[in-house]
């Protein structure tokens, strides 16, 4: 059932079978367990903790955009408050 393509041996004939559902869940669990516990995750990374230049650049861009957006928002709020006070004084 976990094979490739649509061969007859891979076709599910009884989709309501509790045994089939249990077997498929167990097969998925076994596959996930194998992938998660594979040996590739036990190899230490010599570059762990170091950021590459692209990551540093993207963080810098994000910070720059955030500062510009906060500055623009502050200017809009200051002008809005100034205009609101001026219009209340005219009433």
Explain briefly what this protein structure is.
It is built from two helices and no strands. By secondary structure, it is mainly α.
Helix coverage percent of residues?
55-70%
Distance between the termini: 79 Å
| Discrete helix count | 2
Q: Supply Rg.
A: 30 Å
Low-confidence stretches: none
Topology order in helix (H) and strand (E) letters: HH
* Overall pLDDT level: 83
CA-based shape: elongated
Strand content: under 5%
Total count of strands: 0
Main sheet properties: none
Q: Supply the helix-strand structural class.
A: mainly alpha
Describe this structure in words.
The chain is mainly alpha-helical. It contains two helices and no strands. It has helices spanning 18-36, 53-89.
List strands and helices in order, with pairings.
Layout: H1 18-36, H2 53-89
Structure keywords:
mainly alpha, elongated, 91 residues
